[in-house]
Write a structure and sequence with these properties.
This protein is mostly beta strands. The protein contains no helices and 18 strands. Strands 2-3-5-7-9-10-11-12-13-14-16-18 form a 12-stranded parallel beta sheet, with no helix packed on it. A two-stranded parallel ribbon has the order 1-4. Strands 6-8 form a two-stranded parallel sheet. The protein starts with a strand and ends in a 15-residue tail after the last strand.
């Protein structure tokens, strides 16, 4: 078995009955304890590169699992089948390339999932189907180039979704349609060139939307109905014009960044109803940055 192989077996008998345990600099290779009362488990910077089938056997009380800064490449099988009480999971900052469709099966209490800073290029459309309580999902800083339209279909409690710093080029029109409680959506630093006008429909609770550092040229009608939107960042894209229906009646909008685009024309009614705007950036466009903004 490699030094990095994780099939954790109980070795430090004086620590396994604690409600919280952090394994940071200990060279724990195996762990198996059917009577464990652990609620938290952290395995960090251990060069772990494999999780064996019975690793989490008997971990029925576990509520928080963190395994950042390891060398994991694959998450296989239904390894978390005994951890039905998990509320938080982090596999961030590994080298994960693929995740088995069953890996998160049965985790109906899970609220936070971090998979950021890995090497994911695609994700099975059914992988999150059982995560009915999930409110936070971070898939940022991977190599995703496409998101299946049904990937988030069961995540109607989701509040924060991070998809930034990937290689996403497009979305299906209804990718986010079931995320009725979504409050923050980060799509910045991708390769998006165009978004369907229906993409954000129904996201009435969305307060923060980051689209900066993409390749968007058209934004007309994208934000209609986003009545809770407070912060909108479209900086560093390829937007050329702002029509009359681009931002109309976004009454709660207070922060808008349109800098570093190619904007040459703005309709005089583009900002009608946006009278709570405090920050407005139009620098580094073709139009004068002193454009006379008016919400009337």
């Amino acid at each position: 078995m490699n030094r990095g192989t994780l099939f954790i077996f109980l070795i430090l008998l004086n620590i396994w009955t604690a409600s919280s345990v952090t394994l940071n600099k200990n060279r724990i290779k195996q762990m198996k304890d059917s009577s464990s009362s652990r609620t938290q488990l952290v395995i960090c910077r251990k060069k772990v590169d494999l999780i064996e089938p019975d690793t989490f056997f008997g971990e029925s009380q576990l509520m928080k699992l963190e395994m950042p800064y390891n060398n994991l490449k694959y998450l296989r099988g239904n390894l978390l089948k005994d951890t039905k009480n998990l509320e938080e999971i982090s596999f961030r900052i590994n080298q994960i390339e693929s995740i088995d469709q069953r890996f998160f099966s049965g985790l109906e209490k899970l609220q936070m999932l971090r998979l950021d800073y890995n090497r994911l290029k695609q994700i099975d459309s059914k992988i999150f189907n059982d995560l009915l309580s999930l409110t936070f999902l971070d898939l940022s800083n991977n190599q995703l180039h496409y998101i299946d339209a049904n990937l988030f279909s069961n995540l109607n409690k989701m509040k924060i979704l991070n998809l930034n710093n990937n290689q996403l080029k497009r979305f299906d029109a209804f990718t986010f349609k079931n995320l009725k409680n979504l409050e923050e959506l980060s799509l910045h630093r991708n390769e998006l060139t165009q978004l369907d006008k229906r993409i954000f429909q129904g996201l009435s609770k969305l307060g923060l939307l980051r689209l900066n550092s993409n390749k968007l040229s058209l934004i007309d009608g994208l934000f209609t109905g986003l009545n809770s939107l407070r912060l909108l960042n479209i900086n560093n894209n390829s937007v050329r014009s702002i029509s009359s229906n681009s931002f109309q009646y976004l009454e709660k909008l207070s922060w808008l960044d349109l800098g570093k685009n190619k904007i040459a024309y703005i309709n005089s009614r583009a900002f009608k109803g946006t009278c709570n705007l405090i920050y407005f950036n139009l620098k580094e466009n073709l139009i004068n940055s002193d454009f006379p903004y008016t919400c009337e």
